[in-house]
Design brief:
alpha/beta; 2 domains
């Protein structure tokens, strides 16, 4: 949870000529995997996870320019955003850091994202996964609109859509024909791995 300490350790590892990819995978990512386990066991809660994710990014930002795209190819590309009308993005940010820590490239559209912006992003980025988040019952119905629009514009083929957020559940995901539902970061990563391997 200590940004300064993480930055120091990353810099010192680089000075010792440890490969940036190894620092990322064996240091930062291993750390976030431990955070994910603690969160899943309810030993860590949202505030702790946020502090850890800030510390992760403090190290990640140092390494990012040093890691050539070729040396660590992302497992898959994910377009991620919070639907329009919803400005809550803490959950999305936690899930995003866990996705990145697991080796996925995340195109983060942010919060309060209109339906059309999701469609444009899918058309432009051609992701493997579209992840939709909502924390309000009043905005979660827009997830259905996004899926209908993807179908209408023939953008659904080969695309897996996952949904999450406080009011969302398995039944809702099935009712709007999403490919899966996840309640938190660790299970989102497991769900993505399952969908992509299947």
């Amino acid at each position: 949870m200590d940004e300064e300490k993480v930055s120091e350790l990353v810099s010192s590892a680089l000075n010792e000529k440890i490969e940036p990819v190894d620092i990322l995978e064996k240091g930062l990512i291993s750390g976030m995997q431990e955070v994910a386990s603690l969160f899943a066991r309810k030993e860590y809660y949202v505030p702790e996870v946020l502090l850890c994710s800030e510390a992760f990014y403090a190290g990640f930002d140092i390494l990012k320019p040093l890691i050539g795209k070729s040396s660590r190819k992302p497992k898959a590309r994910i377009v991620f955003g919070v639907v329009e009308g919803d400005i809550h993005d803490i959950g999305k940010n936690i899930v995003k850091v866990m996705m990145e820590a697991a080796g996925y490239e995340v195109v983060d559209l942010g919060r309060d994202v209109p339906v059309e912006d999701f469609i444009k992003a899918v058309d432009k980025e051609r992701p493997d996964i579209l992840a939709l988040s909502s924390l309000m019952t009043t905005t979660m119905t827009l997830m259905a609109d996004i899926l209908k629009e993807l179908e209408k514009r023939n953008l659904r083929r080969g695309l897996k859509v996952i949904v999450g957020g406080a009011p969302v559940n398995e039944e809702f995901a099935a009712s709007i024909k999403a490919d899966g539902y996840s309640p938190d970061g660790p299970s989102a990563v497991r769900l993505i791995e399952k969908l992509l391997s299947g």
